[in-house]
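Morning!

This is the sequence you dropped in the shared folder:
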Amino acid sequence: MAGLIILVGLIVGFLAAIPLGPVNVYVISQTLKRGFVHGFAGAMTTSVLDAVYCLIALIGLSQITDPMMKYLIPMKVLASFVLILLSVRLYRQAKTFARPATPQELPPLSAKPILGVILLYISNPTIYIFWLGVASMTTAHPWTHMSNSGWRPVVFAVAAGLGSVLWYFLLIRFVAKHHLQFQPRTFKRIFFGLALMLFGFAIYTVTTIFA
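The structure's back. Tokens below.
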């Protein structure tokens, strides 16, 4: 049973990380601007938060879930504001960014990717709603039959986090490996496209407030 829970957790974490949402866009942009280490720092932060949110959803901590549901609209407003700020920043960088000629010219280590991911994550209530859906599925399914206590929720949440790490490692490694081969014009187009995506996510988040 433990092996099956780990396997399902890995698959769920891996698949959950694939869709191109705001966090993925941000992590890719950090990799393009700052290199593998910064991109992977943001990715690891995302994976840790995935595991934490998954565990909270599974064990049902009402002290955390109730306030999140109560302040759903303010959180969506905050998420929209953060996404718009990031999209404007990326748009400006699309016009001024200079590609590093060598890996040695990449910016020095910074906590910005970690802080950016945390801000995106905690301001986006839909992420937690997703993990609530996962918790409902795994609790009801006979393969996992999760309870809100014991070792199973912890093992599943850790496995989901590791599945997320695997996806982000593959993604960041690919981007970091090829980004120095891009022409400056390609960089600008990519940043402009990422900025448009983030702005689109912001608009979508605003529309959900009135849905």
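Headline: Residues 2-209 form one domain.

More detail when I'm at my desk.
O.
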